Amino acid sequence: MGSGLPVSLVALSAGTGVLVVAAAYTAGRLGHASAPWADRLYWLGQMLILAPAAARLLSRRVLPAAGTVTVVVVLTIAEYLVKVCYSPAAFTYPDELMHWRGTVDILQTGNLFTTNYLLPISPRYPGLEEVTSALASVTGLSVFTSGLIVAGVAHLLFVCVLYVLFRDVSGSDRIAGLAMLLYASNSLFQSFDSMFIYQTLAVPFFGLTLLAARRLTAEGTARNPAGWLTVAAASILATVVTHHVTSYVLVATLVVIALASLLAGDRRSAAWTAGLALLCAVPVVSWLVFVAPQTLSYLQPAIGGAVQSLRTVIAGGHSSALPPSVGPLANQVLSGAAVLALSALLPFGWWQVWRRFRRDPWIVAMAIGSLSWYAIIAIRLAVSDGSELAGRAATFVYVPAGFIAALAVARLVSVGLRWRSAAVVALALAGALLLLFDGLANGWPPYWERLPGPYQVAGAERSVAPDEVAAATWALAVLGPGNRFATDSGSYPVLGSYGDQNPVRDIAYLYTSPAFSSSDAQRIRAQSVQYVLVDQRLSAELPASGQYFPVDRNAGRYTRPLPAADLAKFNHAPGVGRIYDSGNIVIYGLEGPGYAP
Amino acid sequence: MHRSQADLAVTAAVAVLACGAAEGGVPTAVTAVLGIMLFAAPGYLLGQLLLGARVAGLERVLVVAGLALAVPILGGLLLLATGVPLHRGAWVGLLTGVTLLADVALFLRRRRWRPAPASGQLARLRLARLRLPPRHAAAFGAAVLVAGCGLGLARIGAARQPYPGFTQLWLSPRRDGVRTASLGISNQQGTTTRYRLVLLHHGSVNATWNLTLGSGQTWQRAIRYTGRYAIAADLYRLPDLSHPYRHVATAGDRVSGS
């Protein structure tokens, strides 16, 4: 059961897995994106990466410290390379395009707080863009290459910091390795957590702050309070400047550790962590009040919606949530099994905490934090758009949940080894692979864009094609930046990033009516729309993502493409010029009196 | 030079060389290597200053990497607060300045507190522990090579992904009241293409251009239009003159194509 597999062979297998996944991606690009064999090739590559690593971390022969950390690093780097292979020439994920735009703006203007039409809040948290523009400036590398380096280093740094924390808290490399394996099963690990987005850079600072707090609270070891306090302060400030939610979670985490320290009777730990929580809260609140007050209005819709849905459910009303997964049945089964597995492991982990670690404030804090696992399941089931919200929370929730589940797995395996070792290790390996494959199958890219390939209508990364990019760069060059554009969800991020335009989200009505009525004209005047981008392919294909427009009340309900006549109506509309035509894409200018200048 | 000060000399030299490279005239590969070293140097030196030799191994690497990433974040804010725009010179100056200042601070500290004589021996012991048996080193090397091939394959696949070619035609009036419009064509067909462009004024042919554009080539003109009527342009892809291949028109003109 992989018990003696050398770590170097785990690395070789992972490298081969990257090559196999790259071959599957290339097959997709060359026209086989829908071929079952290409899909199987992708999963074979992932199996080569994940299975040996999982087998080695779970094996009977316990790895030495260096071996464990090497397996964790190999797994992280291999999955990051898989992510890079998906888009090896340019950023294509919408959120990455938003931050690419912000970085280009800093390089061009020398100013941090420029306007970002796609993600207006991001210039108020410019840490990622600062680091990337600094690296691009001093190396002469492109923003894309610099962004890949920054995101990759930040992701690996976070993983290693977590590993060190887990090892330090548990006193066991084995438990730390298992906790990292379980952490890697979160659906964002291979994608969102390593993308060129502000959270990717903020989370290593979150981890470093906790590491510094751990060192400051340690007793009896060689400490350096001034040095670690400075590291903590720098990490806290960097977190605050880089990402809003991460900084709030950091304050909450320090408060929970302080409370757990009180519960465990460790006053020294309570004092240090409470002090650090205060040290963190002051810049968080100051930044929110003086630099980024719009953060509240940015976060309010998601949080307010979640609270409202939960209230409705608690009051006995019906959930407004869509089914948690609308993907293929296999994905839903995998998701359900993974939720059940982790939900069942956590109570067993708490029992281990009670038996062995109830005097350790950090482990008690993680036990408390792991309750958030059940909260995100509730949100996923009860809240409209809950899957999105719960998915985004996974980066943080899996830290305590992964650790507590690892305590359970380590105990079960060690008990099982005395009884029937091979069968128990095989069962544990199967369980770990179930969780890891669930993370991939229900993570990003979604099943409908698993492999890169030809253009898809209203998709995500496969909607970033040369004619979209050409239209967007034309708009910037000829029309200038910041124009209000009506567009579909496929062109939306391209137009806002490459084009530096200001696309409007709630615009579906304009494309779904048979005629350009006076009420349509009135409404787009009210929205100050200046240009309308029409992708003719909207009348040829159903939307890959289920919705044609960023805000689409018919999302998931389209049964046939939009009528061609609905898209052609602008050709005859008074006061509307047809100013750009590249075949698939036509741009109309609203030139008549009354339209926005 | 004392062995314990060699790192200070190296980081100072990197800072000076990177500054020189930033002035220009240096191959990108050299600038990239020096730039990455300059980017990492402040983190290494600040890690030494803050934690000294008391933290070792992975933990030291993590703190160094974290500090290296934090310096541009906090330093960039400070620069902007003092009115310095964040262009290339500012970033190079910031990283060089922090590196040299930390060098001086560390130099002075090390002169006051010399490291324990056993530290060199300890470092050698640590290195010995890291030494890999040849077959494992070969396997790790092969892993890097194979994964690198994967990246190369992905890049080749992305470069060779077939996309349908297209031609951009535009006629974009200026919005500042001046009666001129930008008329242009960009050939993205992936091959040299022959076109005929017909400019229509109130339905009548006003001008005609026969154009041969190479792949990626762009042609454009500023068109003045006076009077009450709007203008339109039909682009034909030769030899087909029966149907306009692309059509654009300013507001008010009837659409004749697509």
Structure description:
The complex is a heterodimer of chains A (597) and B (258). With 597 residues, chain A is mainly alpha-helical. Chain A contains 21 helices and 5 strands. Chain A has a 5-stranded mixed beta sheet. In chain A, helix 18 (492-497) links the parallel strand 1 (484-486) and strand 2 (502-504). The longest helix of chain A has 56 residues, at 386-441. Chain A starts with 6 loop residues before the first helix and ends in a 7-residue tail after the last strand. Residues 320-325 of chain A have low confidence and may be disordered. Chain B has 258 residues and is an alpha+beta fold. Helix content of chain B is 51%, strand content 21%. The longest helix of chain B has 27 residues, at 134-160. The N and C termini of chain B lie far apart (77 Å). In chain B, 36% of the residues are buried. Residues 253-258 of chain B have low confidence and may be disordered. At the A-B interface, helix 1, helix 3, helix 4, helix 5 and helix 6 of A face helix 2, helix 3, helix 4, helix 6 and strand 1 of B.
Quick rundown:
The complex is a heterodimer of chains A (597) and B (258). Chain A is 65% helix and 4% strand.
Runs of chain A with pLDDT <50, length 5+? 320-325
Element order of chain A: H for helix, E for strand:
HHHHHHHHHHHHHHHHHEHEHHEHEE
Shape label of chain A: globular
Please work out how many helical segments of chain B DSSP would assign: 6
Count of individual domains of chain B: 3
Q: Counting H and I runs of at least 4 residues, what is the number of helices of chain A?
A: 21
Helix content of chain A: 55-70%
Give the SSE order of chain B as H and E letters.
HHHHHHEEEEEEE
Strand content of chain B: 15-25%
- Low-confidence parts of chain B lasting 5 or more residues at pLDDT below 50? 253-258
Structural class of chain A: mainly alpha
Shape of chain B: elongated
Major sheet attributes of chain B: 4 strands, antiparallel
Compute the separation of the termini of chain B in Å: 77 Å
